[in-house]
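Task: complex structure prediction.
Instruction: return structure tokens for all chains below.
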Amino acid sequence: MKKIIATIIKEWLLMKRDVAGLLLLLIMPATLIVVMALVQDAPFRDYQNIKFDLLIADNDHGSLARQVIEGLKSSKNFNVADSIDGQPVTEAQLKALLQKGDRQIGVVIPAGITANMVNSANIAVNTISGKMGMEAHLPTGPVREQMYVHVLFDPVSKPAFRTAISSALDKYVTASCSGMLMQRLSALSKNGNDTTPPNDLAKIMQGTGVKEEPLNHDSNTIMLHINSVQHNVPAWAIFGMFFIVIPIAGNMIREREDGSAIRIALIPNATQYTGPGKIIFYTMICSLQFMLMLCVGRWVMPLLHLPALYPGQYPWLLLPVSLCIGFAATAYGYFTGTIFKTINQALPFGSVSVVILSAIGGIWVPVEILPHTMQRIALLSPLHWSLEAVNEVILRNDNGQAVLRPLLLLLATGIVLWAVSIVADKRRSYSVQ
Amino acid sequence: MFAIEAKDVRKSYKGGWAPALDGFSFSVNRNQISGLLGPNGAGKTTTINILCGLVKPDSGSVKIFGKDCANEITAVRNTIGVAPQQIALFGNLTGIENLRYIGRLYGLNDATINTRAQKLLERLDLSKHADKRINAYSGGMKRRANIIASLLHEPELLILDEPTAGVDVQSRALILSFLEEYRQLGKTILYTSHLMDEAQQICDEVTIIDEGKFVVSGKPADLVRDTPDCKKLEDVFLHYTGHAVRD
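Output:
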């Protein structure tokens, strides 16, 4: 054990004198998580929490158009403008502004849409009342096949953004249409034998539809939605941990090149202790680095007007999680430092492979939005297992059961990489020259 | 019992155009400074690698104090100290930090390490530089530190690969006088060098190796005397190995 501790002390002395390496290990991931959390804050926010500028060209001026505009104005999602410099927005103006990218969303309400909607509602009420034996004779005209409220987007808008905005607008138009229909049915019920008070008829439809429910009704469970901080802090902290491959591989190859590895090879059985010493030291560094990043997420993010990181109901689980991730990352660095002969080979391999493993492992974007094939490939990435383990703790409030599987995978990976490195090192021919 | 006894050692490397060692035999008596001399590519480094257990011979036997270098490597390594030609120290650690780490890996306690390190640092004139990083040392200081690191566990056999290569006259004189002193403690030293004058000066016996084969062995003075037209060891060396430049 003294020999392992001696190696840990030696690694610490070497690390603290390598200021650039220390900065790479601590400042780089901290900067990365702050920048990525800030950059991805908007895309991660629920669209309900963001106000979008919306331009409306109203060619109808009818009650439906008014209801849609009022509905949008009263919504917390949109800043609605239907005039520019006191003049109503024209369709041509709206399209020109969107094309230039000055506005992101435009809505064109076609002329006659209110009349068409009233006509459709009247036809529906007349038909229903006729089938019920109550004669209603609301005025109707010929049916027009298609008349839509048009939504236009800035050409650079993302498809997901378009879908979300279109759905929100569709909700308002549909609500206006059904409101009109209910109004007519209420008026009809006044003339019949229905005892339901007319004002309550519209309320009957209330309380139906879609509403999000908490998955866990336990009052102690804190409901949490994924946000930029909850994703980016653990994701980029894990990315930073795996970047330990650079200092470890660099350190090992330098030791072989400068001859100090020969000194160790000449001491009886020394490699039995220097290997574990190195692995333990860098695993501890990784764990420390991860905890530091969590602290940044918890206490620095709110200073930047971002949500604070929520560490889950069992935050102590993050210690074994970080140690297992650190072990896998360290073993990967040890493996890279063993199999490659030169720094010029090891460093590009180490950095590029970590970037690839992080891209397929859901570090950059959540795995759920990757294509199906990529989702299956993601299951092979140790960075994915790492993120899965952290998410079990900080998002799903796992008490240690679900986290076991990814941790065992990480431990197994670390052990295999370490074992392969030991075999490869034994086959390496050391020479006194 | 010899300090070193190598018999009919053969070693070929994959892709090598000739065997590195081709039935090489030699021996070193205890308590003497023995020189292993040969031109580039003669097989000196392969011999040292086999003695240290870094390379296994294809055939033949190599023993250090009766212990087989291929099969009893832990016991062998406990009795030898090796100062490779390359400075085998951690450049970003200070001299004393290197010695503490190496001493601990040998299983020595801190008190023993400190006592031995101080003594050796003083003897090789490095005590006032003990707290400086190795990277800040001059070439001569690095060589001396390299030798100290191989002596912490007080080995019976010290193997030195060109210990004075690239050092100034003062450092060289200090190293050579120290080796003589170490021999007087009852220790054995195997030394390789291309500096024939130096070998003639400090070696009790030399062995010349060429193309992986034993060439000649004996006391430097005897070799000079017994080889025709030779006035110094360098003449003997050239007599046996020729004037052709080696790759």
